[in-house]
Amino acid sequence: MNATQIKAAWIAVDWGTSNMRAWAMSASGTVLAEGISDQGMSKLDRDGFEPALLAIISDWMNGPTTVVACGMVGSRQGWVEAPYAAVPCPTLPQGLVQAPTTHPDLTVYVIPGIMQADPADVMRGEETQITGFLARNKNWDGVICLPGTHTKWVHVSADEVISFQTFMTGELFNAIATQTVLRHSIATDGWDDAAFIDGLETAMARPERLAARLFSLRAQGLLNGMQGDTARAHLSGLLIGAELAGAKPYWLGQQIAVIGDSRLSRLYVTALAAQSAPATQVNATAITLAGLMTAYQRLKG
Length: 301
Description:
Elements: E1 10-15, E2 20-25, E3 31-37, H1 49-57, E4 65-71, E5 85-86, E6 89-90, E7 97-99, E8 106-110, E9 114-116, E10 121-123, H2 126-136, E11 142-146, E12 151-157, E13 160-167, H3 169-179, H4 193-205, H5 210-224, H6 228-246, H7 248-251, E14 256-260, H8 262-274, E15 279-283, H9 284-300
């Protein structure tokens, strides 16, 4: 279907810090077209959001058009601030926030994030994925893991977020691999499954020794010829193992779903399986769209 034939019933948007993705949607939730932009929240001032969006969606518009957006577009630095709902709360917080627009046919609604006062924590975007997952898995109770730069563990019950905790594991991996002495030892790609499991088990058994285990990767390369791809996998195992040790009160004995990038999600599913904690892996894009669809249906009553 070419651009001149696409007439969206509504438009779904996932607007992050670095990028924005938009989908032309039918009324029933079928994707008609997709657009991707590098105009993430961090690159825009408040007046820049509408032009960045129209650059992607204008060909899909056919008269008055409703857009439902999630993610950092609703942050304090975003298009419009969508205040956080406090846990415990519904996975899709009440009261979508309308963003200011100048185009006469454009109406944009932003989904609020969720906050936790103690221990202090916040999420934006993940609440929409959780909503989509629950829309497809009725009456599901358990823990949802959302791996990424900042991985979240979320306790869900009776269609509400009860509590959650964020781990900076992805950001730590990137910083350690590129900004510390280990940059000389960690390859930029490649993998070793056995090294990942070894790192995982080491960190799970003695998470308090993580800092020492990290430096040993440098020594292993210098003294024993550890290859960069092996070191990369071992580093990932150490960090995810330390995270799982810290998140154990969430996942132990619970029903678990993992939502995120397919490769990273597989690592978490593998790591949990090694702890006799089976988890279901879920496609992040499909679940995000299901959550945005749920929000759109709510708007339409």
